[in-house]
Design a protein that fits this description.
Elements lengths: L8 H9 L3 H23 L2 H17 L10 H59 L3 H11 L5 H8 L3 H30 L2
């Protein structure tokens, strides 16, 4: 068995290109400590430094046939470690901004959506109570509140007196207030935080 420690970087790079596992092992043993220290100096994190080292050597083996290392194996490895770390930092920054934007978006839209759902439920409840009113009271209420007619105009349409319309409107509001009073209170408690 040949002693690969005696070979130069250029020789080891040549052997690596042919798929020589012993040459790869020698390159790894020759550079693992110094590259690990270089990675640790950049990250100040042992796990990240080890991951960078493993990724760079895995890529070196995977691309061994196409990489042109020449005589500058150490330069290639230093650059590969540095680039891997810089790419990791860039990915973390992008992920952080992405997560932050999603959190901000979800916080804003959940609130808006939640309020819209509550508002729609509340409107449906009001419409249900209006539909349950006696026909004349419901007609007076709808003409007043939905078509924005005055008591005088409603009286003319319905063929009754303005005083009767006022009385029906007062009774309608009293009924709705008694049925919806607790719901309105609960709605206000839920929406005011």
């Amino acid at each position: 068995m040949a002693d690969y420690s005696a070979y130069s970087d250029a020789d080891l790079a040549g052997f690596l290109k042919t798929g020589d596992r012993s040459a790869f092992a020698e390159i790894y043993n020759r550079y693992k400590f110094i590259l690990h220290n270089h990675a640790w100096n950049k990250t100040r994190n042992t796990a990240e430094a080890q991951d960078a080292l493993q990724e760079v050597f895995a890529a070196l083996w995977a691309k061994r046939e196409t990489i042109n290392l020449g005589s500058n194996l150490s330069g290639y490895l230093y650059t590969a470690i540095r680039n891997h770390i810089l790419n990791g930092i860039a990915r973390k920054d992008v992920q952080s901004r992405y997560v932050s934007s999603i959190q901000q978006f979800s916080a804003e839209n959940v609130t808006v959506t939640d309020h819209l759902v509550r508002e729609n439920l509340f409107k449906a409840l009001i419409e249900k109570e209006i539909a349950a009113l006696p026909p004349r009271m419901r007609e007076v209420f709808e003409l007043s509140r939905k078509q924005h007619l005055s008591h005088k105009q409603i009286a003319e349409i319905m063929g009754t007196s303005e005083q009767t319309v006022k009385k029906q409107m007062t009774n309608t509001l009293r009924v709705l207030r008694s049925k919806l009073g607790l719901v309105v209170y609960i709605y206000l408690l839920i929406t005011i935080r």
